[in-house]
Amino acid sequence: MRRDSRANAAIFILDEFLAGQNLNAILSKWTKANRYAGSSDRESIRDIVFDILRVKKTFTFILNKEKQVINGRALVFLYSVYYSLPLNDIFTGQKYGPDKLNNYENEFSEIAKENNERGFEVIDNIPDFLLTEFQRSLGSKFGNVMRLLEKRAPVSIRVNAHKSDVSSILEVLSSEGIEGKIAKKVRYGIEIIGNPRRLTQLKAFKDGYFEVQDLHSQKTIEGLPIKEDTKILDYCAGAGGKILNIASLLKGNGRFFVHDLDKKKLIEADLRAKRAGIKLKRLNAENMEQHHNSFDYILADVPCSGSGTWRRNPQQKWRITSDSLEEILNRQITILNEVKDLIKKNGLLFYITCSLLKIENEEVVDDFLIQNKNFSLSNKENITIDTQGDGFFCAVLQKKN
């Protein structure tokens, strides 16, 4: 596909998103309807859409000020100006490309090029209703985090210590033309510097020698005081990334249980575990009672705003509302209360989010401890988003004897 065709596809996808459709569903629908598009085309179109969504508020601010319609074309146009792309190669007016620039667009691009009178003001690209909460939660880090949220997320992998080592995987990557370097923050992490797209196509990935995983996610898990030959539950396991990280660190020496309301994700967790050489057991409503007071460790990696990962999933920040956040907060405290009776005395409960907000982190923990005097706070850590990884929060809660 040519540059103009890719831009036209991005315009279609953005129009659907602005109309309220789910972004992943839109991308899937577009791919099925345009099977001629190769993987590089799909990746480039996705990059355009995600780059725009990361700074959508900046663009909509300009469009509102200029009294222009907010649609996919307007966003792709401002994106093209923002990154100084060749506009005539994009807005070609040809069969598969967007219409040629109109008078307003020509005027805007010329003024922006000459003196930036209509330049891109520094706008904090988060929902308005969360601005005060972000400022309260981040303090002096607020400005830096806002700028980081506008950029693409870094790519990193976790070597499965149960099967391989960092040096061996670096050699594999190099032989496949993928540039990586040893991550300093974690024991089994590799930062991917170049050509990350092919990672999941490699035989080493398919054979379970490594997983794609954020460095700060790895750091969060490595910081947990978990011993070998113990009974461990990942209560909100999803596709199993964190429990498999733990199993890798323990070289498979433990009993690993997973629970999640999304059965499709648990199927994916089973597939990943099989690749990694780890056996996962299911906890469900039918067998839960027999596991009361039996787990040494429980991870509650709860649903959250995902604000620490918004670089990676920029669509999330434009879908969250004050009502949906309130539902999330209620769900977080509910989950803690659901798992508290599953932990044995002196056992540890790990409350984890990928949120930057105190209202989802420290304040949820405080509420739980007020309601449950038989638990105490052993430790807590905020891992702030930076150029190496996403933002996470972890509190270690101990059940008293």
Topology, element by element:
Blueprint: H1 3-18, H2 23-33, H3 39-54, H4 56-65, H5 72-82, H6 87-90, H7 103-114, H8 131-138, H9 142-148, E1 155-159, H10 166-175, E2 179-182, E3 189-194, H11 203-206, E4 210-212, H12 215-222, E5 231-234, H13 241-249, E6 255-258, H14 263-276, E7 280-282, E8 295-301, H15 314-317, H16 322-339, E9 343-353, H17 362-371, E10 375-383, E11 392-399
Helix pairs in contact: 1-2, 1-3, 1-5, 4-5, 12-13, 16-17
The share of residues in helices is: 40-55%
**What percent strand?**
15-25%
Continuous helix count? 17
Main sheet summary: 7 strands, mixed
Total domains = 3
End-to-end C-alpha gap: 65 Å
Q: State Rg.
A: 23 Å
Could you say which structural class the secondary elements and strand pairing correspond to? alpha/beta
Q: How would you characterize the overall build of this protein?
A:
The structure is a single chain. The chain has 401 residues and is of the alpha/beta class. It folds into 3 domains: 3-123, N-utilizing Substance Protein B Homolog, Chain A; 155-212, Sun protein, domain 3 (Alpha-Beta Plaits); 220-399, Vaccinia Virus protein VP39 (Rossmann fold, 3-Layer(aba) Sandwich). It contains 17 helices and 11 strands. It has helices at 3-18, 23-33, 39-54, 56-65, 72-82, 87-90, 103-114, 131-138, 142-148, 166-175, 203-206, 215-222, 241-249, 263-276, 314-317, 322-339, 362-371; strands at residues 155-159, 179-182, 189-194, 210-212, 231-234, 255-258, 280-282, 295-301, 343-353, 375-383, 392-399. The strands form 2 sheets. It has a 7-stranded mixed sheet with strand order 7-6-5-8-9-11-10, sandwiched between helices. Helix 13 links the parallel strand 5 and strand 6 (255-258). Helix 1 crosses helix 3 (39-54), helix 1 (3-18) packs across helix 5 and helix 4 (56-65) packs across helix 5. The N and C termini lie far apart (65 Å).
